[in-house]
Write a structure and sequence with these properties.
About 30% of the residues lie in helices and about 10% in strands. It has helices at about 1-35, 155-175, 195-215, 240-245; strands at about 140-145, 180-185, 225, 250-255. Strands 1-4-2-3 form a 4-stranded mixed beta sheet. Helix 3 links the parallel strand 2 and strand 3 (about 225).
């Protein structure tokens, strides 16, 4: 029995010793591992990346209503009507800032239309602004013919514009023109009776007389009328074209200071 107890004791001691050595070996190996393991250095902290710059946002342009104003220049002088104090400036005339024609030499002819700028003070000028020649004193007698429709004493409307234009040009070229006498002779074709044609030609003469005095301002005292009926034809009454020429009024103007 003692033998067995001794063996058991020896076995327990042996196991205890082994356990002790085994623990020590484990501790030594752990210590070696701690020594041999390289020390891990913490990774250097990288500098924070700079935040991206925010591009300045362009604010949308403010939308504005554009008002388009159309300037009207009725007389074409370069100054709009709302600022033009002289709204009927003649074409070609030089105007000031207010749209009024300039007349630098004060001769009555606007700059831009004045062919003789710088005319001396008090000098009489013609329509072109150049010194005017004195009246010629020449006297002349000139003939104008107006034709009529069949059995009519009414002056055709086209005659007024035609003769007004001609008379205006004559007066511009001859500012000293003087009317001395106007003779108005009425005629007719041979259609109808002689008595009727005489009355018709007289009405035509009076119609032209009124036309001259009211439209062109000729003094009635200077106008003389006569009626000839069908007595003085200028063409054959056998054709319509001939009769048209005979239905007429002849006007004879005696004027002074007329130079063509």
């Amino acid at each position: 029995m003692k033998k067995y107890m001794l063996l058991l004791f020896v076995f327990v001691v042996f196991v205890g010793v082994c356990l002790v050595f085994s623990g020590c070996a484990t501790q030594q190996e752990a210590a070696k591992e701690e020594v041999s393991a390289p020390e891990e250095k913490p990774a250097p902290e990288s500098a924070p990346e700079p935040a991206p710059k925010e591009e300045p946002k362009e604010e949308p342009a403010e939308e504005k209503d554009i008002e388009i104003v159309q300037r009207i220049d009725s007389d074409g002088d370069g100054v709009s009507d709302d600022a033009d104090r002289c709204d009927n400036s003649p074409a070609g005339a030089v105007v000031d800032e207010y749209g009024c024609p300039k007349d630098s030499d004060n001769d009555g002819v606007y700059d831009g239309l004045d062919m003789c700028p710088g005319t001396g003070s008090g000098v009489k000028v013609d329509v072109n602004g150049c010194p005017a020649a004195g009246p010629s004193g020449k006297v002349g007698r000139y003939k104008v013919v107006l034709e009529f429709d069949s059995d009519s004493a009414s002056v055709r409307t086209g005659y007024y514009n035609m003769y007004k234009e001609q008379l205006t040009k004559i007066r511009e070229k001859n500012p000293s023109l003087e009317v001395l006498r106007v003779e108005v002779y009425g005629h007719s074709d041979s259609t109808g009776t002689e008595r009727y044609n005489m009355e018709l030609s007289e009405r035509r003469a009076r119609s032209v007389s009124r036309f001259i005095t009211t439209r062109f301002g000729v003094d009635q005292k200077l106008v003389e009328t006569r009626a000839y009926g069908e007595m003085k034809p200028v063409a054959s009454n056998r054709s319509s074209s001939g009769r048209q020429k005979n239905r007429r009024v002849e006007v004879y103007l005696t004027v002074k200071n007329l130079d063509f």
